[in-house]
Amino acid sequence: MKKFFLFLFVSLFFLPLKSQNKGERLYEVTRNMPSFYDKVKQQLTYPMAWGNATEKNFSRWRTEARKVLMECMQNRPPTPDTYNLEIVGTEKRRGYEARKILFNVSGWSRIPAYLLVPEGKGPFPAIVMLHDHGAHFTIGKEKMVRPFNVSPEVTADADDWAGKCYDGQYTGDYFAAHGYVVLTIDALFWGERGQKEGADYNGQQALASNLLQMGTSWGSVITMDDVRSTDFLATLPEVDPEKIGTLGFSMGAYRAWMLSAATDRIKASAAICWMNTTDSLMTLSNNQNKGGSAYSMIVPGIRRFMDYPHVASIACPKPSLFFNGTKDKLFPVAGVQSAYDTMHQVWSSQKADDRLVTKLWGEKHFFNKEMQRETLLFFDKWLK
């Protein structure tokens, strides 16, 4: 009898373990997403979006929406006391001059940049040219402007990237050759603002975490550096401060429409291959849920107020161009179209729909030469 009860006790004790071994264990995180992610998304009502906000005067709404955006970008880099421009190298090119410069982008950072200046009598229209992410950190500004006075390795790196993402054409040089001053900087963690220990994909997540721990964010630093770069550009005698635009591809596109939303020094913007909705991006199958590159484009808390197209709409009624590809695996077409529809409603409400260009190309995540040509024509229309 004692042996029977001992057997029964042991059997009951190990029964739960046997069930677990049969795959009965419950998990609450799949593909980096919590099982309740749909419920979280349902809470995102975007009360500050135009049309949802209590403020019905558009001009006052823009002011309030931009204030909310800035408040979410807490502990922002301070404005520099002086830009202290220094030209450290020049190269004559066909129709323009390439300059390697240093300037104070904030009270915290003095950075290198490329400045392209057309030949002839200015002032000229100008473009703040914003590089992509691409999980490729060894170059930044060199993705947009052909580098000079650099090692053969950097030149080869830049040429290779221009082929992979820009159809073999440096977008900055293309615009400079057509009469635009071009400024391009390294975003924090890229190129000459990179990691001392060497480029490391996981390092970006640690950087983002450390900045969050200190009350700011990586995405906010990048945006504010772009804002201060625009302020700097407007001070140059070669530049018409009333004719400054911004252009970017991929993460650079995100930076472009964020920059246009953040400052009215930007008079027109073009965003190539970065627009969507949180609902479409925050799924089990989208690249966004992997983290990584997403950290560079996160403004903490902003989703409690506005989605991506709502923030971009702060730029309304400025001329704004958005291109995306139907074969782009990073941005679901349904989300792109939904975001486009939202923005068209905003521009239409201000009788400015002719100033909003949205187009889907039969293209992957790529900025081809024909797209670049149409983008140039867009800026020629509004800035020349």
Write the layout of secondary structure elements.
Layout: H1 2-24, E1 29-30, E2 33-34, H2 37-42, H3 58-72, E3 86-93, E4 96-104, E5 110-118, E6 124-130, H4 152-166, H5 171-176, E7 181-185, H6 203-213, H7 218-234, E8 239-249, H8 251-262, E9 268-272, H9 278-281, H10 308-312, E10 320-325, H11 333-349, E11 356-361, H12 369-383
Parallel strand pairs: 6-7, 6-8, 8-9, 9-10, 10-11
Antiparallel strand pairs: 1-2, 3-4, 4-5, 5-7
Features:
single chain; 384 residues; alpha/beta; Rossmann fold; nine-stranded mixed sheet; two-stranded antiparallel sheet; globular
Protein described:
The chain is an alpha/beta fold and 384 residues long. The protein has a single domain (44-383), classed as Alpha/Beta hydrolase fold, catalytic domain (Rossmann fold), CATH 3.40.50.1820. It contains twelve helices and eleven strands. It has helices at 2-24, 37-42, 58-72, 152-166, 171-176, 203-213, 218-234, 251-262, 278-281, 308-312, 333-349, 369-383, and strands at 29-30, 33-34, 86-93, 96-104, 110-118, 124-130, 181-185, 239-249, 268-272, 320-325, 356-361. The strands form two sheets. Strands 3-4-5-7-6-8-9-10-11 form a nine-stranded mixed β-sheet, sandwiched between helices. Strands 1-2 form a two-stranded antiparallel ribbon. It is globular, with a radius of gyration of 24 Å. The model is unreliable at 1-20 (pLDDT under 50).
How many distinct folded domains?
Answer: 1
Structural class: alpha/beta
Strand content: 15-25%
Spans where pLDDT lies below 50 across 5 or more residues: 1-20
Counted beta strands:
11
CATH third-tier fold name: Rossmann fold
End-to-end gap:
99 Å
Q: What is the CATH class designation?
A: Alpha Beta
Please give the count of helices. 12
